[in-house]
Fold this sequence. Notes:
Elements: H1 2-28, E1 39-40, E2 45-46, H2 49-80, H3 83-96, H4 101-127, H5 143-167, H6 171-179, H7 184-213, H8 216-221, H9 240-247, H10 253-282
Antiparallel strand pairs: 1-2
Amino acid sequence: MGAGIFVLVVMAAIGTFLLIRAIPSLTSNESNVLTTQNFDPDNNDWGIAALAYGTLVSSIIALILAVPVAIGIALFISHYAPRRLAVILAYVVDLLAAVPSVIFGLWGLRFLSEHILPIERWINDWFGWIPVFGGSVNSASSLFTAGVVLAIMILPIIAAVCREVFLQVPRAHEEAALALGATRWEMIRTAVLPFGRPGIISATMLGLGRALGETIAIALILSPSYAINASVLEIGGSTFAANIALRFGEIAETGRSALIASGLVLFLITLLVNMGARAVIARRKEFSGASA
Length: 292
């Protein structure tokens, strides 16, 4: 109980600090914070619309790409791969999670950008009639590229957590499904995935938290711009964390207060996402006593 109370106190202290430091810029701002795309706090003209859009879109792209692959990796390691191969693969996945984010950023900037640009152009040629894939593709410094790099970064986190959850499925459930004539995939679909659904949600939220707060990799890949663009393939965009990292050292006091205010918004978004995940997990309590 003491540890739990301490965590709550720390979170409350962080939120209070952010709120106090954000008040000066919020009170002096002449624009609507929620709808303004521009970010020029030194002239009292700033908002979080473009930053929130870039943060959420890049994170959603990362989840769409990473979650199915991570679940497949976890299932292969836990239920398909031979024991020796499973141990090696699990070690490699865990090792990938330890790679610093700046390495992913440099890799995305120097290697991935060159090789993903033809793919983005192909997507634009064939699916450009969809607004999210429309526009002109002249550079790989886009939210799509940032989302791909984020997907690779959160993949090992989601895969590792899902793997441990799948290994906790009661052996009796699996054997019962197989005894009824189910194939291995049918056993996984009827026994493993339902039991592991709360764990999959938790792993996804952990990955989302990493994606929402990622800084250096996004700062290296994106060409900063404060405009909401419907297409994820066009150049430009920014996120809360990357914008704070790039501008904190060169901005005036009012601007720093605005950056802290944007950090407060990111803090609230993260809290809301995790609270929503906990609410979903709470609805799956029927599986919590499955191992009894």
